Amino acid sequence: TRAKQAGKRTGLVSTCRITHATPAGFATNSPDRDMEEEILAQYLDREVDVLLGGGAEKFMQTSTDGSRIDYFKKFEQAGYSVVRSKSHLTRRVARDKPLLGVFSDSHIPYAIDRKNDNSLSNVPGLKDMFEVALKNLEGSEKGFVLQVEAGRVDHAGDANDPGDILHDQLEYDDCIPVALDDIAKHPDTILVVTTDHG
User: Fold this and answer.
1) Residue 126 near residue 171 (C-beta atoms within 8 A)
2) CB 3.0 to 4.6 Å from 172: which of 19, 69, 137, 150, for a disulfide?
3) How far are the Cα atoms of 89, 93, 115, 138 from residue 96, in angstroms, in the given order?
């Protein structure tokens, strides 16, 4: 990508599948948002530095000849640290390697569910992923672009579920002070906060 050639680093963080429309729109080209297997291959080809979200189901694919393709292995072979749990993610903050973190089969469970279901305690929230992505990308000599999406807000809105909307929106709001603290240390940073479909 042009950013990679210019020495800039790129990070994508989402509570959706990491191959979902918003993160894909920042780093790939596809005629259809549902071409998530192709989007995943482009992430690897374009060497996106940080990928954190859901969507493990997209990482095991079947090729045209019927053989299985394991994208977790492909990312590891390309030099990525691959993490699959909150505890592993929060221990992994080194900047020397690109980072792939995938924490659910499909989308990350809603924040309210993660707060109230002990079986989901090792799934990171948006703030956890944002903080690690920021630490990974900081110090890049020519800067970085980091896209952070609270994608489940949209899903809860589609489902007319105000409880899920509220908790996922509050989780997103928790990211703002982290961003502002980072900007105070790096005043040449631009922060853009916008709505879905905004």
Assistant:
1) yes
2) 150
3) 15, 9, 32, 11
Place of tokens 């060497």: 47
Long-range contact pairs involving 23-31 (C-beta distance under 8 Å, separation at least 24): 23/51, 23/53, 23/147, 23/149, 26/145, 26/147, 27/1
DSSP state of 139: T
Element (H, E) at 71: helix 71-77
Which tens digits make up the pLDDT trace of 33-60? 999 999 999 999 999 999 999 999 999 9
User: What tokens appear for 97 in the block?
Assistant: 């390697």
Cβ atoms of 2 and 32 within 8 Å: the answer is no
82 membership: H or E segment, kind and range: strand 81-83
CB 124 within 8 A of CB 71: no
* Residues in contact with 50: Cβ distance below 8 Å, sequence separation at least 6, in sequence order: 9, 10, 11, 12, 13, 98, 99, 133, 136, 137, 146
Phi, psi of 25 (to 5 degrees): -65, -20
Q: Which amino acid is at 9?
A: R
Q: Which of 136, 111, 138, 142 is nearest to 125 (CA)?
A: 111
| pLDDT tens, residue by residue, 13-40 | 999 999 999 999 999 999 999 999 999 9
Q: What pLDDT sits at residue 90? A: 86
Asked whether the predicted pLDDT for residue 92 surpasses 70, the reply is no
Band of pLDDT at residue 94, cut at 50, 70 and 90 = low
